[in-house]
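Good morning N.,

You mentioned wanting to compare the apo and holo forms, so I went ahead and generated the holo version with flavin-adenine dinucleotide. This is what I fed in:
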Amino acid sequence: MKKLIILFVVILLSFCVFVGYFILPANIPHTDKITDFSRIEQEIISEEIHVEKIQEIKDALNQAKKSWTKVSIAGGRFSGGGHIMTKYGMMIDMSGFNKILDYIPESQLITVESWIRWREIQEHIQADNLAIWVMQSSSIFTVWGSMSSNIHGRDARLWTIVDSIESFRLLWADGKVINVSREENSELFSLVIWGYGLFGVITDVTIRLVPDENYKRYTIALTKENYARYLEKNIIDNDNIGLHFWRLSFAPWDKFLKEFFVTNYEKINEKDLNISVDKKIENEKNVLRNRFFFNLSREFNWARNLRWFLQKKFTDNINSTQYVSRNNAMNPPIEFISYYSEKDTDILQEYYIPVENFSEFIDDLWKILSENNVNLLSLTTRYVPKNTEIFLDYNPVDMVAVVLYFNVWLSDSEQENVKSYIQEIITSTDIHGWRYYLTYQNYANKELLMKNYWEFSDFLDLKKKYDPQELFSNKFYETYSK
Ligand SMILES: Cc1cc2nc3c(=O)[nH]c(=O)nc-3n(C[C@H](O)[C@H](O)[C@H](O)COP(=O)(O)OP(=O)(O)OC[C@H]3O[C@@H](n4cnc5c(N)ncnc54)[C@H](O)[C@@H]3O)c2cc1C
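and this is what came out, ligand included:
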């Protein structure tokens, strides 16, 4: 009996340790270096200055100019290529700029300070039945961090965030504050959005809102060969589809990139269906449970298989339908992916492929990821229609954005390996006239970047025209401007 009790206690303790290991977020140790979401880029800076007023930004810029120090700007710190830091530079922490300055529900316009996060705007406008027009698939990011990265969302009717921007105010290196819009200082409008803080500090921005539509969410299975046709027939120019994305199987072995599920959010009229959609913005649920399965899948192939199975069974079940508001659909769970380990980290990569080349790209991707045994944790796509309003656009033609989320080792040798296969993917994007997203790690060399973005040298010239002393800088800029 005594032996049985001891055995039971040992099993129970082992179970608790096992579950605890995979559920609890690890403590992030203190370091003198500034880093971002994926911790690939790290840097010692000279000073971090927290600002709450325009005069404080002006003072900080004057101080930097006097000491010949470069200045970078930090939003939510989710970009991945050192876009918020520069070696021995000054970092302006904008988190004090988080207020709503003006809001007119009738005209569907809101003016906010640049650091405010989408979630805070959603909470403010939800009572007036309004929603954000374009944002990432999560509400944790800051407004200007998003605009500086020219982000796109899941609304297939819209290009990128530029669609929703009316105007903004830019504080220049010389301390002047200017208005920027499509009519006023229009060249800067096309440069500062997706300008990574290289042209000045944005203090506030006016964005356009849309009604908080109600959606029916459903999932269908599809083959990759049929996706382009499906898009054309059912999604593009279909005003009834509010949001749309496509998920590919990240499960290893025979299922790897072989199963495909499209999820649509189709507009509904509550009265016709005799249902009521809860408009209150939800908090993330089941964080510990989801973190447990996600953590397991970082470690074990069988767990990636299990997660894909659960995904199909519960989240994207082709036999189930849910009703959800636009605000809540644009607020999916994200906290459960937060992760810290000394030895590995998660990174994102994103590639833009003309719709007609999409299936071919997935074949290339399958080959490169399989050969390199990449620990893929998710792969989704969005449709991004053509737009050329931004100087460095990534959608000069109608594109499918392919978003990869994976876990990589941090050791130097493994990072060299990651660099090599990412360069292989980017080379394949270049061959086919595709593009990659500049907001993540600087794995591409300058030659690859210039081939992907042939307007980049003009971008550098314009940067020097507006900021001749190169006061505003960051690691991304320093990697590719020399
Ligand atoms: C888990 C995850 C999911 C993501 N999903 C998506 C997605 O669905 N779609 C998508 O398009 N992207 C996505 N991204 C990328 C993300 O949108 C960008 O990294 C974005 O920049 C994050 O915003 P941030 O507030 O963290 O900005 P930061 O990383 O802090 O800053 C980004 C850039 O903005 C500049 N900046 C910040 N504030 C100012 C200011 N006031 N004035 C001037 N410049 C400023 C910074 O200097 C920096 O160059 C995702 C990233 C992660 C980590």
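The chain has 15 helices and 19 strands.

Happy to go through it together on a call whenever suits you.

Best,
F.
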